[in-house]
Amino acid sequence: MSDERASCASLLTPTGRGAVAVIAAEGAGATAAIDAAFRAANGRSAAAQPLDRIAFGEWGAGEHREEVIVIRSGDAAFEIHCHGGVAAAQRILAALESAGCVIQSQADWAKQRSASLIESEADAVLAQATTRRTAEMLLNQRNGALQQAVAAIRELLNAGQLDAACDQLSRLLERAPLGRHLIEPWLVAIAGRPNVGKSSLINAIVGYQRAIVFDQPGTTRDVLTAETAIDGWPVRLADAAGIRETNDPLEAEGVARARQQLQRADLVLWVLDGATLADSPQIAAAREWREELGVAEIDRVLIVVNKADRVDARRRAAGGVEFCYTSALTGDGLPALLSAIAKRLVPSPPQREAIPFTVRQVELLHSALNAANHSHTDEAQALLAQLAL
Ligand SMILES: Nc1nc2c(ncn2[C@@H]2O[C@H](COP(=O)(O)OP(=O)(O)OP(=O)(O)O)[C@@H](O)[C@H]2O)c(=O)[nH]1
Ligand SMILES: [Mg+2]
């Protein structure tokens, strides 16, 4: 039977990103390629490996010889785990290809082996998830959370309960931004006047010297970013020039870029210098961000009073708008800042709920809600059927 199946192989992990790369391969070509190149420590041939057990051994010969793990996952179906760099995976894929395997993209591989479109979309997206938390949420969708939510809405439509169906559709759509950010990081811009400690803060958060820190205003010119995870959410932090009016053309370009970053950001950390703060943080921040962002943008701003090591403890009594005291120098207040950022990005994290996570899903849900809102039940049904194919 295995001989009738087309031989194919696919690199399942993103190229060169993890410590280990995983290649799936099946068919007679895969078995032949493994037998030609792989010497298992247990001395058995590929087809004689026990099912779902790890077979450790070496792939190739000479200078390109390397340690790999082969797992026989089915009748003439294998997983090969090798070093995560590009070269090892490419060598193994080339060997598989020359033994007759068709090399498929990870998305195509997943599509052919999934029970539903949502499942294959989840497989494709899962390979790009960068945190355990987001991977777990995507796995829930792969295991049926979204499929079941869509089925429940279709039953409501069947039963003529239009209002309830619209309500459920709206709730699903409310989670669409979170779904997008399961793989696309949130952009958090660190902004404020020059010399307040923005670059020091980004360094303190990511734990290494990403940005140059210097006791002169106007140190940072270009926008620089660092990817990290905050409370399990993927975040791209952006540090940029301190914002002020300037006649220096180079600094002015930096300020213009910092302003663009402010517009794009999902959240802005507006940093104040605690050491030179004359007013209360609310008053100072309100004045500064009103000039930059306008009052309407307040939802996107979290005020940070940095250099807290130089703030009199009595002055810390605060109220009103939420803000954080930090010291990039001592690390004081950083855990609280990270919690505040996570809370702003995802105020109420879903547990095991359905989350739409692709543009296709979100567009179909929008159209279905629109149809249901106009009492076009059949159209809404058809759109949801298409979503959960
Ligand atoms: N005491 C104290 N000094 C700090 C703290 N954070 C930064 N500094 C100092 O403040 C100065 C400016 O820090 P930077 O991080 O370069 O400030 P910036 O906001 O990035 O400045 P620009 O890039 O010029 O806009 C440096 O001398 C830092 O060592 C802090 O929490 N406490
Ligand atoms: Mg700087």
Automatic annotation (TrEMBL):
InterPro entries, alphabetized: G_TrmE, GTP-bd, MnmE_dom2, P-loop_NTPase, Small_GTP-bd, TrmE/GcvT-like
An example molecular function term from Gene Ontology annotations: GTP binding
GO cellular component, one term: cytosol
GO annotation, biological process: tRNA methylation; tRNA wobble uridine modification
Boundaries of every TrmE-type G domain copy: 185-346
Domain of life: Bacteria
Gene3D superfamilies per record: P-loop containing nucleotide triphosphate hydrolases, Probable tRNA modification gtpase trme, domain 1, tRNA modification GTPase MnmE domain 2
Protein name: MnmE
